[in-house]
């Protein structure tokens, strides 16, 4: 079985975090459950190729698409993906590959083909249903936190939720790191109220001001968040939202962030 979908490095970090399975019945136990690694292959296959769950090739992944979807549901409800992201961020910090002194924040719109939670009429897509991915990254573009909202939500409304969603990142002796030093943002975040909120948290705001000509120099630092969105959209399932359940779409988004973090670990040694 090919493991190009779930390399050993990813599986070694996922396996200890999997929730325990319920014990099998002694009488009429039924069929053995599908292998967890095979189910993860199916999830990653859909994330990368954007096929429907029924079209997941069992001969390549080792399980059916229905089984992969059920594991995605169960693992999302168990909180697997944030814990995986936390493990990888701690490893990056321990290796000196995480720099939170300068961070950047932004949002990106995606069309939602099915209605559900966290969808709304998009002002940039003729009021069609859409969602937004909101992201905060470190100096190198490593995602620190991600949230999902309706397409009609203003980016600035997610500034505080994103800061609150940053995990307490361990990896070094001393207190865990969970707060940027400086935060770079575009004109959409140009509100004095939010500058005061950032300063109250000990974060220096670096936000472009409306009405001032371009060329402030903030783009030299803020471009990394745009690059991270480009990385995320290499996972074809994230370019358009197909899931009705918002938690499942967010789970796929968090898994993609973890895979990108793992790539940085692998290419830095």
Content-based structural category: alpha/beta
Question: In percent terms, what proportion of residues is strand?
Answer: 5-15%
How would the global form be characterised? globular
> What is the succession of H and E elements?
HHHHHEEEEHEHEHEH
What is the number of strand segments? 7
Number of helices: 9
Average pLDDT score:
91
Largest β-sheet summary: 7 strands, mixed
The unreliable regions are: none
Round the Cα radius of gyration to an integer and report it.
20 Å
Straight-line distance between termini: 27 Å
Q: How helical, in percent, are the residues?
A: 25-40%
Task: Summarize the SSE layout with pairings.
Layout: H1 8-14, H2 36-49, H3 58-61, H4 65-77, H5 80-94, E1 102-112, E2 120-121, E3 129-137, E4 143-150, H6 159-165, E5 182-185, H7 192-200, E6 204-207, H8 219-232, E7 240-241, H9 246-267
Helix pairs in contact: 2-4, 4-9, 5-9
């Amino acid at each position: 079985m090919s493991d190009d979908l779930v390399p050993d490095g990813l599986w070694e970090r996922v396996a200890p975090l999997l929730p325990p399975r319920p014990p099998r019945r002694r009488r009429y136990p039924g069929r053995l459950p599908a292998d967890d690694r095979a189910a993860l292959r199916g999830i990653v296959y859909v994330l990368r190729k954007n096929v429907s769950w029924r079209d997941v090739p069992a001969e390549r992944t080792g399980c059916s698409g229905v089984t992969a979807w059920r594991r995605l549901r169960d693992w999302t409800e168990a909180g697997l993906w944030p814990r995986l992201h936390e493990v990888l961020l701690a490893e990056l910090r321990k290796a000196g590959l995480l720099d939170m002194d300068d961070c950047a924040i932004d949002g990106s719109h995606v069309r939602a083909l099915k209605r559900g939670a966290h969808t709304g009429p998009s002002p940039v897509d003729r009021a069609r249903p859409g969602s937004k991915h909101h992201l905060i990254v470190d100096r190198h573009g490593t995602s620190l936190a991600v949230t999902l909202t309706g397409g009609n939500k203003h980016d600035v409304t997610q500034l505080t939720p994103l800061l609150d969603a940053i995990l307490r990142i361990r990896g070094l002796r001393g207190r865990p790191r969970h707060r940027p030093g400086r935060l770079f943002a575009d004109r959409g975040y140009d509100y004095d109220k939010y500058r005061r909120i950032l300063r109250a948290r000990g974060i220096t705001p670096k936000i472009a001001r409306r009405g001032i000509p371009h060329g402030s120099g903030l783009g030299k630092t803020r471009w990394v968040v745009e690059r991270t969105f480009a990385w995320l959209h290499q996972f074809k399932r994230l370019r358009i939202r197909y899931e009705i359940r918002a938690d499942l779409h967010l789970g796929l988004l968090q898994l993609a962030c973890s895979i990108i973090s793992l790539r940085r670990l692998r290419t830095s040694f």
